[in-house]
Amino acid sequence: MIAMTIVVNPITGDGHRLCAELLPELIALDDWGFPIVKTKEVPPHLESLARKARDLCPTLAFLLLP
Q1: pLDDT (tens digit, 9 = 90+) per residue, 21-35?
Q2: Cα-based distances in Å from 21 to 1, 2, 24, 47, 66
Q3: Which of 39, 41, 43, 54 is the most buried (most CB within 10 A)?
């Protein structure tokens, strides 16, 4: 089984912080509120939250790759 991986586009991200609120286990925030991916691989038990974070990202900066 191939794990899902997180990619955050730092250019399109505006620091809305939704992804970090939904996935604090995988995403931290820098001093300005922009996301820092702690680990790119999404564990199976967090896949539904990762999809929700992707779907709710207002700037489409949060991507999931198979």
Answers
A1: 999 999 998 898 888
A2: 27, 25, 6, 15, 22
A3: 54
